[in-house]
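Predict the 3D structure for this chain.
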Amino acid sequence: MKAKKTLSVTLAAAMAAGLLVGCGGSASTATSTAEAASTADSASTAASTEAEAPAAAGKVYYLNFKPEQDEAWQDLAKKYTEETGVPVTVVTAASGQYETTLMSEMAKSDAPTLFQVNGPVGLANWKDYCYDLSGTKIAGDLTSDTYALKDGDQMLGIGYVIESYGLITNKTLLEKAGYTVDDIKSFDDLKKVAEDITARKDELGFSAFSSAGMDGSSDWRYKTHLANLPIYFEYQEDGIDNTDAIKGTYLDNYKNIFDLYINNSTCDPAELAGKTGDDSRNEFLNEEAVFYQNGSWEYTNLVGDGKPFTDDDLTMLPIYIGV
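Done. Predicted structure below.
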């Protein structure tokens, strides 16, 4: 397959405005890698069976990153086909297996038309397969190109959703411990609150933080999301946007916040190697912890029908690292 045969996944924004797709792993039920590969091989066959669809030239194969968004993408694909006649096949990679699945699918003759590039690092791996969107209608629809992925003058990816992450906070438990979110405005404030909760853990019946598991289903929260913070502040201080090697100006801050997590958690630090993303989420759902580092993509796992929380129960605090 020639380079640039496929379009960057960000073209999906043209047909998917407003849909949330997260940037982390998820333990939600998903199409397995093997199933994804099998489905991809049958993409043409599946697309040709669309009932009574208008005649159309071409087809779309979208390799989806987020298992928890599979149903929404499938519904959208069906509606798009009904309106345009263009067959759309959505394949969802298994949780934590997107890059592996993408590599496998790209090697096939019927490779994904749309795929996701996970930021600058992903762009470095896949830029030869990304269509230059400069001058296209979707590029013109942007109110800002701040989050567009570029390689020189080429716009090779467009961010179609902006998410946030931080410390998801159970306000009710925090108040039971004698605090409100207004009491936490810095790392020192967070440390004081967390260590006080730990000191009274048996009395209160809950911990400060859900488990900071180092299993592959959970470690991306710390080796990627949390690790972004010291790098961000170093870049900001040095006035740069790229470097071959960081100086490590704020690595002590990174260590301090992670130490705070693991020493004020639902479990002993020695148990973290086996703790999963599901464990951390379930601890928070079961009100065993006040704080849970994750992002806005977790919303539907915490709030809604059958979930224990409402919008009034939760908020999100910044991850204070003392900078």
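The first helix runs from residue 13 to 16.
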